[in-house]
Design brief:
By secondary structure, the chain is of the alpha/beta class. It is 48% helix and 14% strand. Bound molecules: pyridoxal-5'-phosphate.
């Protein structure tokens, strides 16, 4: 059987769901068919909001609900913005009642008619998260009971209210919230179904969906005939219907479409404003009949949202990744962190080294991704790098590995950064700032770079006596741990011995070393397990080695970064014609030449074409030629497939071919650390494009 083509179905359905919400609020068929309108707006369109709850639950469960804080914050912010946006309409409608009324609107009903969604998602998310901790059976049992209770106050109200006790119960509920379609009764079950992420075969999903939709339609019309509904958000068959629909969408889902996601948020938030404006304008010009027509309102609101969308596009910063960009495979990064952590002994944690913009990978998104993967300790080179992470909301320990001016001690404290004491004088100067700083002591065991000499016990003891310094850790750095020749190994052994001897002496002298650490990536690859609390890994985390050296431990790490640039121009040169500065390229035969929009200012060595540099185009290797420019370079694409707009791969895979960082670094006569960390800030950063599932960081709001 041929595989159906996969698309970002979940994101596309968000737009459909937002349109269905618009249907609910406009009833576009009402002027023509009452039954048809009832089915569309009161039954079918009820799939919309549960879908948003489910996507939210689905993405939160992907990383075991770890991003729930972020998700709550994002929904909270959207709610706050929406409240402000609708305040004029509230005021216009005289909807600013008593304090209890305001509180009820704020925390249960939403301050405008569609905004009930936000209190519902906030509460529903927290409840579903707590419930999911109980295990699937109790969680679904409780959420199911809540849903049934909600049904009794919604489309089955007339039946439920015949029981006096229930009537009293609902009277109480309705004092707190106007409807039972809210975060307590309505939302949890959908969050949990989404979180379960159950997938049946396409055939079963389709059959299940159509059958349960039919059943739900029958239920809706039956209830309508009985005339017992107080509201029509909840049906008995709705959860079943949603489970099959979601399975259907999931099975064909791949990748993400942020544009669709953002448009759905805009449509959802803006549509009541659009309806109100369209209606008022139409009433003045086209008459009441048109103004009240649901189809008119639907089209007008959609048109206005599209217009607003286009307008907003002017404020959007231009996409920085159109000409040349880095693609970051977040799944690979998270996986590498897990592999490295698993390679460490118990009690030893990964300290992710994010200096130099995470070796060119983007420190902030990398830190976010790693935090979600469970990493709690980070290292950077300097103060500004540490502050940038904190500003982006990265929590956990952040150790500054390099020297920081003592005058900046206040900043260290303000941003809760841990500073390395570079030597005794640095320690004294930091202490003199009287700031109560958290520090790690660098011990020099043979690198002869930073650190108090491991043998200088007096200096170490003095640092412990300094006021205002809290020594949380002691570390050292290995000079030749990447080398397996006997002399290097002996040197590493000597460094290790000095380190542990000093630490032992400190312990015996009552100087608590705190967390100790000595391994970086090659220490992890080449040394046996160390009795340390941290391993500071940089290059290994990014899935590459510095060069092609042999290592003792094979770890299954995957490259995280790909580098691509656009073909922006093509031309054919006749034999003898030249191109570029210095006329460095001279066509020896008729040559098709592509200009690729990346250059040495983006971090490539200028002589790469002369060193045999290549790009991949449609899975084929094509040689760079001529002199590299600051922002562009030439590629000989004679006989190859190439068109303007094509993405050329400078690093990474394309088709069956790959250019590895190790190979490119060797070609450039350097190590991957240098090559990657020099990738310039002008390069766009595309986080996660290769993942089949959108990143969990976007779980925050199902509408986002
Ligand atoms: C850069 C650095 C590291 C990380 O090194 P990798 O080889 O990339 O893992 C660890 N410790 C110190 C002190 C560093 O400067």
């Amino acid at each position: 059987m041929k595989d159906a083509k996969k698309r970002p179905l979940l994101d596309h359905f968000r737009v459909a769901a937002a349109l269905l919400v618009l249907v609910i609020h406009t009833s576009p068929l009402a002027a023509w068919t009452a039954a048809g309108d009832f089915w569309l707006a009161r039954i079918f369109a009820r799939l919309a909001v549960p879908f948003f709850f489910m996507t939210s639950g689905y993405f939160l469960a992907q990383n075991n609900w770890r991003s729930i804080g972020h998700a709550l914050k994002k929904s909270g912010v959207l709610y706050a913005v929406s409240i402000l946006l609708y305040l004029p309409l509230n005021l216009h409608a005289g909807q600013l009642g008593s304090l209890p009324d305001i509180l009820r609107r704020l925390f249960a009903d939403g301050t405008f008619y569609h905004l009930w969604y936000f209190p519902a998602i906030l509460l529903g998310m927290v409840l579903a998260w707590r419930l999911s901790r109980l295990g699937a059976v109790p969680a679904f049992a409780i959420a199911g009971i809540l849903y049934l209770a909600g049904l009794g106050g919604d489309s089955y109200y007339g039946l439920a209210a015949e029981v006096p006790a229930l009537k009293t119960f609902y009277a109480f509920v309705f004092q707190i919230a106007s409807y039972t379609r809210n975060g307590l009764f309505f939302a949890p079950v959908f969050f949990l179904i989404g979180a379960a992420g159950r997938q049946w075969s396409r055939r079963v999903s389709w059959a299940g969906f159509l059958l349960s939709l039919t059943a739900m339609s029958a239920e809706g019309f039956w209830l309508r005939r009985l005339d017992v509904s107080r509201h029509d958000s909840m049906y008995l068959f709705l959860p079943l219907c949603m489970a099959f629909l979601f399975s259907l969408l999931l099975s064909g889902n791949q990748g993400e479409d942020r544009t669709a996601r953002r448009f759905s948020v805009l449509l959802f938030i803006l549509h009541p404003w659009c309806i109100a404006v369209a209606r008022t304008l139409a009433a003045r010009t086209l008459g009441e009949a048109v103004a009240d027509n649901g189809l008119f309102q639907f089209c007008a609101a959609l048109g206005m949202t599209v217009f607003a969308w286009k307008l907003l596009a002017y404020w959007e910063p231009p996409r920085s990744n159109a000409r040349a960009w880095r693609e970051i495979d977040a799944a690979a990064l998270a996986r590498n962190a897990a592999v490295l952590q698993a390679a460490l002994p118990k009690g030893c944690a990964l300290m992710a080294v994010l200096k130099a913009n995470a070796y060119g990978h983007g420190a902030i998104p990398a830190a976010r991704c790693l935090r979600k993967a469970g990493v709690r300790a980070f290292a950077v080179a300097c103060l500004s790098e540490g502050i940038a992470l904190r500003r982006a909301g990265i929590r956990g320990a952040i150790l500054i590995l390099g020297w920081t001016p003592p005058e900046d001690a206040r900043q260290l404290r303000r941003w809760h950064l841990t500073q390395t004491v570079a030597d005794a004088a640095h320690g004294r100067a930091l202490s003199a700032q009287k700031q109560r700083l958290h520090v790690h002591l660098a011990l020099d065991t043979g690198m002869n770079r930073l650190g108090v000499s491991a043998g200088d016990r007096e200096a170490i003891a003095e640092l412990y006596r300094l006021p205002g310094l809290r020594i949380d850790g002691v570390f050292s750095h290995l000079a030749v741990s990447d080398s397996l020749d006997p002399e290097s190994e002996a040197y590493t052994a000597q460094q290790l011995q000095r380190f542990y001897q000093t630490v032992d002496w400190m312990r015996s002298a009552g100087l608590d070393p705190g967390s100790i650490h000595i391994q970086a990536s090659y220490g992890l690859w080449n040394l046996p397990e160390q009795p340390c609390q941290y391993a500071r890994t940089g290059i290994a985390l990014y899935g590459v080695q510095s060069g092609g050296e042999e290592v003792r431990r094979k770890l299954d790490l995957r490259p995280v970064l790909s580098l691509r640039a656009r073909v922006v121009h093509l031309q054919t040169l006749e034999a003898g014609e030249t191109a570029g500065y210095g006329r460095a390229f001279r066509a020896e035969r008729k040559t098709r030449l592509a200009v690729v929009s990346i250059g040495y200012a983006d971090g490539l060595p200028r002589d790469l074409p002369q060193r045999g540099g290549e790009v991949l185009l449609h899975g084929r290797r094509c040689p760079m030629v001529g002199r590299m420019c600051m922002d562009q370079l030439f590629v000989d694409v004679t006989g190859a497939e190439a068109a303007p707009g094509d993405a050329a791969t400078l690093l990474g895979c394309d088709g069956g071919e790959a250019i590895t960082a190790e190979a490119l670094a060797a070609q450039c006569g350097t190590i991957t650390n240098e090559l990657l960390s020099r990738l310039g800030p002008r390069l766009g950063l595309r986080f996660n494009p290769r993942r089949s599932n959108p990143p969990a960081s976007n779980a925050s709001n199902p509408l986002s």
